[in-house]
Design a protein that fits this description.
The complex is a heterodimer. Chain A is mainly beta. Chain A has 2 helices and 27 strands. In chain B, a hairpin with a 3-residue loop joins strand 2 and strand 3. The chains are: A mainly beta, B alpha/beta. Strand 27 of chain A pairs parallel with strand 1 (33-34) of chain B, so a sheet runs across the interface.
Chain lengths: 361, 184
């Protein structure tokens, strides 16, 4: 039996955390013998300790999720020594963030539920015109998984098939299209879509996943402000205002601003102190901790709004967020215009003046 | 002379205009907006191409049953558990399983997954790894026989490893019957 030692490169980053652990499972295609190699480190070259015989071997890189996520993930697959189609895949969103190796096949991208994305798939190495499906096509499955609406976790959330098809040799650009998650509304889309490309079983090789990248879809943020209603008139101190911020994007800067006058989109007002929240490394460049990967929902209380509305007149309160979308331009989540009219206090002062006025010559 | 002045003026205007156009485009990119409402988003989605339409135009419909899209990891693994953690080893890698430790082998995972090296360390009292040679792992009957005999009375569950990694031990090839002598 002819044997050779193989230099097999796998990048084991992405799902691996501070203390990465993974293993490579090598399956001999002729005998079915399985060999597990535990590996440490953040990735690089993997030299198979086991010789590869002429019939070939299937290599699969597995890793565990980080922290609370103890699921086992297939990070990469390689088939050596047998006929093997090659697939490269890209998912294009407006958010440049990526987990895992973007040049690999099992990375994770992210976007927001109201933003379209596109998928580019390059397939080569198949046999054009072959009567055998396994030689002519690879299989593409588009699956969805809705996350927990409160915790944004994927644990124990069922996967469902969105669509499936076969792909032949060539370059396939799909989209841009919007997410197809089965959430109650489009804007509440909260989950992931995965694009699994499978080599059909043949030549002793079982059905083999060649690529399985995902795109995480996070809900469109929203804001609600209690206590103040549109057109409300405050004749005294403005009471405390509670602002609920829902699904703030994991890469975002959000704040409350106030300005005098009726609402005009694009007005730069005064930032209300203590209301600014920043998530993600773009808005926290000095942060050394890993940034959050999921949206954030929180409440703020503003107790000193009167300090920002000292004069009588109309005021507009707005909740603004900035994200990677639309060139990080301001997006207004909420606005309300109210009036401050302390006329009663003013009349009291006037009557005092009237009483004292006769004394003047 | 006058024409030249106009030309120079026009050129400057052109540069200025170009600058304004550039600035305006930047302004457009940075323009504030209200976050999209569900009704407007639904209209945009309705006007955009769908994944189904894209696949219909650019891919080929299935002509045979869809392949499995789950990794064969679970089918090709034995689950070992200590009640709190579990690990996976290749099918056929358990060399010795005393009757009292059969409950350590599970049909379905329970608890959190941990990798083989740490699982071995935390369960050294009842679990052991035995390094094997490559020929033995590939069915060398003589070596296998000697190994299994040496493990016969070991009270621990023993997993075959090669350079520290669990490995399947293939069955020795069945002995071939003696070929009949060819008749002349």
């Amino acid at each position: 039996m002819k044997t050779k030692t193989l230099l097999f490169c796998l990048i084991a980053s992405g799902l691996l955390g501070q203390d990465p652990e993974a293993w490579v499972r090598q399956t001999d295609l002729m005998t079915g013998q399985i060999y597990d190699t535990p590996i440490t480190g953040t990735g690089g070259a993997y030299v198979s300790p086991l010789p590869v015989n002429t019939s070939g071997s299937l290599y699969e890189l597995f890793a565990r999720g980080t922290a609370w996520d103890t699921n086992i993930y297939l990070l990469d697959t390689k088939i050596i020594g047998a006929y093997n189609p090659e697939v490269t895949i890209t998912i294009t969103t407006e958010d440049s963030h990526v987990r895992g190796d973007p040049a690999g096949t099992n990375f994770v991208k992210r976007t927001r539920a109201d933003r379209p994305f596109s998928v580019g798939i390059q397939v080569q190495g198949l046999v054009d015109g072959s009567a055998s499906t396994s030689e002519r096509c690879v299989y593409l499955a588009v699956n969805g998984r809705n996350y927990d609406p409160t915790t944004y976790e994927s644990l124990n959330q069922p996967q469902y098939l969105i669509d499936e098809s076969n792909l032949e040799n060539g370059s396939h650009t799909l989209g841009p299209f919007y997410h197809q998650l089965t959430t109650p509304t489009v804007s509440s889309g909260n989950g992931e879509q995965s694009f699994t490309i499978v080599r059909y079983a043949s030549d002793l090789v079982p059905d083999t996943i060649l690529a399985q990248p995902r795109v995480e879809i996070w809900p469109v943020a929203s804001a609600e402000v209690g206590t103040i209603t549109a057109g409300q008139v405050f004749i005294d101190r403005i009471p405390s205002v509670v602002i609920s911020l829902n699904h703030l994007y994991p890469d975002s800067r959000t704040y409350v601003q106030i300005y005098k006058g009726a609402q005009v989109l694009g007005t730069v007002g005064t930032l209300v102190k203590g209301t600014e929240t920043r998530f993600g490394s773009h808005y926290n460049p000095e942060q050394t901790e890993p940034p959050t990967n999921v949206p954030q929902t929180l409440s703020l209380s503003i107790d000193d709004l009167s300090n920002y509305a000292s004069d009588d007149g109309l005021y507009t309160l707005e909740v603004i967020t900035h994200t990677p979308f639309f060139g990080r331009a301001a997006e207004r989540l909420y606005h309300v215009t109210f009036e401050v009219d302390r006329v009663i206090t003013s009349r009291g002062q006037l009557s005092t003046l009237e009483l004292t006025s006769p004394a003047t010559p | 002379m006058k024409t030249g002045r106009i030309f120079r003026f026009s050129a400057r205007c052109g540069v200025l205009l170009a600058g304004i156009i550039v600035d305006t485009s930047l302004l457009q990119a940075q323009q504030a907006r209200d976050v999209i409402r569900e009704e407007a988003l639904r209209q945009q989605v309705a006007a955009a191409p769908t994944l189904k339409a894209e696949l219909k135009a650019k891919a080929v419909p299935l002509s045979s049953p869809a392949p499995a899209i789950q990794s064969s990891l679970w089918k090709s693994s034995i689950i070992l558990s200590d009640g709190e953690k579990f690990t996976l080893v290749p099918v056929g890698s358990i060399l010795h399983l005393p009757a009292g430790l059969r409950s350590r082998v599970l049909a379905k995972p329970q608890g959190d997954f941990t990798f083989w090296p740490s699982f071995l360390r935390r369960n050294a009292a009842w679990l052991s790894a035995r390094e094997v040679s490559l020929p033995l792992s590939r069915g060398n009957a003589q070596e296998s026989k000697a190994l299994l005999k040496s493990l016969d009375r070991d009270p621990r569950l023993i997993v075959a490893t090669f350079k520290g990694g669990p490995i399947t031990i293939l069955e020795p090839a069945p002995a071939r019957p003696n070929p009949k002598p060819k008749t002349p």
